[in-house]
Amino acid sequence: MAKLSQILDSYGITDEYLRMKITSLADPVSVRKHTTFDISGSVSLYVLEDGIIRAYTCEEDGTEITTNFVYRRGQPFYSNPSMLSPRMAGVRVYNETLTESHLYRFEISEIMDLVQMYPAMLELARNLINDWFAIQWEHTHILYAYSAKQRYEWFLESYPNLLSRISHKYVASFLNMTPVTMSHVRRTINEEKAKSEINKQEQETE
């Protein structure tokens, strides 16, 4: 599992026995493109090796609301919201692979055993949970505090190179706007960039 070894490097896990133990607990999972799977009933931690996955919930009328994108190597995501709070027990979270994706699945109970044994694992768990909450709070903040144009610009900065790899309707849902609105925002930004470039060229020729 060469790529898992690289992920452990990025996490700063240097203890060889701990690395060996984590590797032994990892269950490699390959999921075909456009596969939707409901993992809200299990208690597992998933770590992405490669691919793109979107998390979403469904409204009563069937409308899908994209809540997250997992696309960075080593990025973790939880299978069950109730792991974070019992109040989330009724929330069903679905995951759709937007590309063929390769993951590592870990049983939470086994990870918790390592957390209790190794201070490095406890620190890592804290950092990952803090990062997860930071991402969720930032997303919630921009949905309510930013204009449509600002939300789109935030996405381009926070999720570089992702827009060209996935359907824009998922990005629009993630940013709480319609695909039509997002298309209008993109056109406005492109026009502003074009005008700025023309003005720059004119100034250089003067």
Structure notes:
By secondary structure, the protein is of the alpha+beta class. It folds into two domains: 1-138, Jelly Rolls (Sandwich), CATH 2.60.120.10; 145-206. The chain contains seven helices and eight strands; from the N terminus they run H-H-E-E-E-E-E-E-E-E-H-H-H-H-H. The chain has helices at 2-11, 16-25, 108-117, 119-145, 148-158, 168-174, 179-205; strands at residues 27-31, 36-38, 44-50, 53-58, 64-70, 76-78, 94-97, 101-107. The strands form two sheets. A four-stranded antiparallel sheet has the order 1-8-3-6. A hairpin with a 5-residue loop joins strand 4 and strand 5. Helix 3 (108-117) packs across helix 4. The model has no long low-confidence stretch (mean pLDDT 87).
Structural class given helices, strands, pairing?
A: alpha+beta
Range of strand content: 15-25%
**Order of strands across the biggest sheet?**
1-8-3-6
So how many helices? 7
CATH fold description of the largest domain: Jelly Rolls
Globular, elongated, flat, extended or rod-shaped: what is the shape?
Answer: globular
* Broad CATH class of the largest domain: Mainly Beta
Main β-sheet description: 4 strands, antiparallel
Return the domain count.
Answer: 2
Uncertain runs are none
Considering the protein shown, what is the CATH homologous superfamily of the largest domain? Jelly Rolls
Helical fraction equals: 40-55%
Write down the overall mean pLDDT.
87
| CA radius of gyration | 20 Å
Got a strand count? 8
Features:
206 residues, Jelly Rolls, 8 strands, 2 domains, 7 helices, 4-stranded antiparallel sheet, alpha+beta, globular, 20% strand
